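Q: Structure tokens for this one, please.
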Amino acid sequence: MSTRTIISILPTMKGNPNRGPIMTSLAVLGYIVMIVPIMFVVVAAFSGGDSLKFPPESFSLKWFGAAASYKPFMTALLSSAELAVLATLLSLLIGVPAAIGLQRGRFPGKSWIQGLFLSPLVIPELVVGLALYQQLIAGLGVSTFLTLLLGHTALLIPYAVRVTGASLALADPFVEEAARGLGAGPAKVFISVTLPLLRPGIVSAALLSFVTSFNNVPLSLLLQGRTFNTLPVSMLDYVQKSYDPMIAAMSTLILAVTIVFALVAERTVGFAKIFGGINK
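A: Here is the predicted structure, written as tokens:
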């Protein structure tokens, strides 16, 4: 399940009393289609056999240990984490000021600029990857890691702008005006008032951006090099050569970490509140 899909369905999880039985049935069917295949993978990860099959003939934890000790996976894991952290930080450095300007500013072409920041959500990642490869790697000889970092940052900026902007839209603007009326300067208002108001959106955007970058396949697959490989691409290469439950075990571990991130965000800032603000 992609992060874009999660963003689109999360607001509906609050429930709608006016939703009819047909819409409810379609929603339930959609959840089944998305969740059941994931459950197959999770169950297969506990298989005690030597081949990936469902249902498993026996159950064991050996493939989790095998995945954790498989060097290519661990090397790619560190590479993916490094790339995701840097891309997330860069997207927040660009997206948060942009969200503030778009939310608070009044200037010509505002809607056009907002659409420009959100455009990576509608442009296919394969197109972005091909363009980056032709212009930066093949054309200018830029390193694989730097090209991947620029590509992932571009893909993550919409999350920073949209989610942070939703958090700011939910905040009361009169709080900032009151601080200025009491004599606080622009810097003091931003640090003491605006940033605390933005904290839920920044945390949510950071978690979503990290997960999106970490799990990205199309862009990473096009731009990867011999010296740098991400975990999803490494897993894709492995499944082409082997058909054992280790790939299911690694997928289950990634799923567990993603769920933990989502629970932390929900307990900390509340996904429903933030994503509800996006649709307003």
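A few notes: The chain has 13 helices and no strands. Residues 5-15 have pLDDT under 50 and may be disordered.
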